Amino acid sequence: MGRQRDLLRLILWLVLFCCSAVAGEKGTYIVHMAKSQLPPGFAAHRHWYDASLRSVSDSADAIYYYDTVAHGFAARLSPAEARALSRRHGVLSVTPETRYELHTTRTPEFLGLVDRGANGFLDVDSPIGDDVVVGVLDTGVWPERRSFDDAELGPVPESWKGECEDSEDFPAVNCNRKLVGARSFFWGYKASVGTMEESKETRSPRDRDGHGTHTASTVAGAAVPDASLFGFAAGTARGMSPRARVAVYKVCWLGGCFGSDILAGIDKAVEDGCGVLSLSLGGKMVDYFRDTAAIGAFGAMEKGVFVSCSAGNAGPVPSSLSNVAPWMTTVGAGTLDRDFPAYVMLGNGENYTGVTLYRGPPLPPSPTLPLIYAANASEDISNGNLCLPGTLSPEKVAGKIVVCDRGINPRVQKGYVVHEAGGAGMVLANSPGKGEELVADAHLLPAAGTGEKAGNAIKAYILSDPNPTATVVFGGTKVGVQPSPVVAAFSSRGPNSVTRGVLKPDIIAPGVNILAAWTDAVGPTGIAVDSRRVEFNIVSGTSMSCPHVSGLAAFLKGAHPEWSPAAIRSALMTTAYSAYAGGDALLDAASGRAATPFDLGAGHVEPRRAMDPGLVYDLTAEDYLDFLCALNYSAFRLAILARRSDFACDAARAYAVEELNYPSFAVTFPSSGGEASVSKHRRTLTNVGEPGTYKVTVTASAGAAAEGVKVEVVPEELIFGVPGEKRNYTVSFSSSAQPQGSSGFGRLEWSDGKHVVSSPVAFVWV
User: Fold this and answer.
1) Which of 6, 50, 138, 291 is catalytic?
2) Which of 103, 211, 419, 443 is catalytic?
3) Where are the chain's structural domains?
4) pLDDT one-digit tens code per residue, 178-219
5) Which residues, in sequence order, are CB contacts of 363 under 8 Å at separation 6+?
6) Is 138 known to be catalytic?
7) Are strands 276-279 and 256-258 parallel, antiparallel or unpaired?
8) Is 543 a catalytic residue?
9) Catalytic residue among 57, 241, 540, 543
10) pLDDT tens-digit profile of 145-166?
11) Mean per-residue pLDDT of the chain
């Protein structure tokens, strides 16, 4: 669902871009300034910024000023003006606007958050987290939903400095003790696309898309009984941290999410007093100093703000990640143990299980309807199998069930194409890249999505039978599906091509078929012809997994206010699980095989254990600066991220990426050379629990190449006393050369008999 809208937005943006991109035409640029270099005679930095801008353009005005997580401004400039400005005193960089994409409940029970027994973790009446405000940067919010009810909450925290925008369709009274703030940032978007279609989007925090309402309620939605989508997934819906507060920063619009707006949103969210930021959006993997979201996140981290980001929906392609900066927590997607089965029954007696969220008149229970493959009902030779608009022949599909293949256009639109051509129903078959992953949709006609194997079998039946028939029977909601979780095929994968020494993603969380609140502006499918309106919707994407981690971070921050953002991430990562209860590794939906750390990072979140991780790998802003020095960042580039000119890398010091105190290990070996090479990594563990003695174990979990790696940990035992005590260790990995591209995986664990502090290890030969 979220991915379908992404495609439509991309098409719209390409059309707008192609129609407007003229050589020399003005575009939006983000200008980073060295604040400490304010010349004499200027009363304020903004006066200096304005003067710098006026020196290259008589007509340009600043779109935004950045003061908290960045220093500088955004403005519309021609390429020549941008080049001239880049040469001005105090200007660190002038970078073109970047466009980002949105990455689009049983989960509290699935995660073990609701249990009033002796092992209970979350009591909905507990005040933990009620002083934490989570800033959600997304498409806005539909404030009238019950998920944003504040009846159970006390006064807004005194630390909160934000506000609720007042506009015609979003009066300030829409905010309350749950939804404590709402702002919109659209100047960068408007400057890039030229006009905003007021009938479809408004310059206010109101959500006309649904994505933002869904993510915000997933983070911290209040408990809502009798929630469902057309009766599917019925039960009580609640967010991950139901006592936390939400502040919404609308930075995404019909034409996308633009860097200048995102940076302005982060800047204001941190200034307002948000303790956690949730960004279900992302762009390409680029150097950190060129990544606007990473720049903003660095400034937020320095202020003690935890930043959670979606990994992206470009899986299972390797190195397809977004948001790979080590100060961001990068979240992939996994499945729940809940499904919405639909059974495709064929005339030859074979039955295949798929999924659907269709709720309407059923098809005949017996397989008596004619069945046809879309490619046999279309004049489109190249894409006739995809059920693209206008490609199906009504004479050939009328009254039949049509088999369509996934690809190019949105899944639900394919069903509408079949419906408009007179088809009675649809079977939507996965492409090879999607494997056996089943993502449910609220189709507009009787339909079921199937895995690749079932789709192939159904198409083979059509070819073998002169009069193929079928029907689809709908099974409602099924709970207890195993195995679960499974890594979603769409979830973006590592390795991290920006810095191979940092393993990404960090973790996975529920992101498939997630029930959460929805806007009243569009139907559950998001397409224009869908006139249905729902309070809750079921959507899939890493956009959905990211707010799960954001909400859990808010809960941890409320329980442990002294923990840094890095400590919170460490607690989530080192307590995550990568195997099922029986010991088998978590599976990857795309391949059907064991998932690797490039797919799931440290593993699937385990909130109960994260509350008491025993030890954490902590990091400060200075540690991240040392990491950037190891990447040979110049003082110029460092200043863009650090916003200060007093820091410079020590030329006499040997910096190393391997010294970044990260909770995972990404080890690279050369693929040539006769002698064994050694990769040495240093780490520091901080006690956040009871005194204890921890012993280390290292295991190879996958890949023959990993079995040939020798590992030495010094020391093999760490003794901790009081909380806050730190202990160092060094781990050396050595291996002979392997063929280029070889990889292997393992785990390094410290345990005191009660806690297990686990780190994934990935080996790559390059």
Assistant:
1) 138
2) 211
3) 2-99, 101-335+485-547+573-580, 341-476, 615-619+661-765
4) 999 999 999 999 998 887 777 778 899 999 999 999 999 999
5) 369, 401, 424, 425, 446, 471, 472, 473
6) yes
7) unpaired
8) yes
9) 543
10) 999 999 989 999 999 999 999 9
11) 90
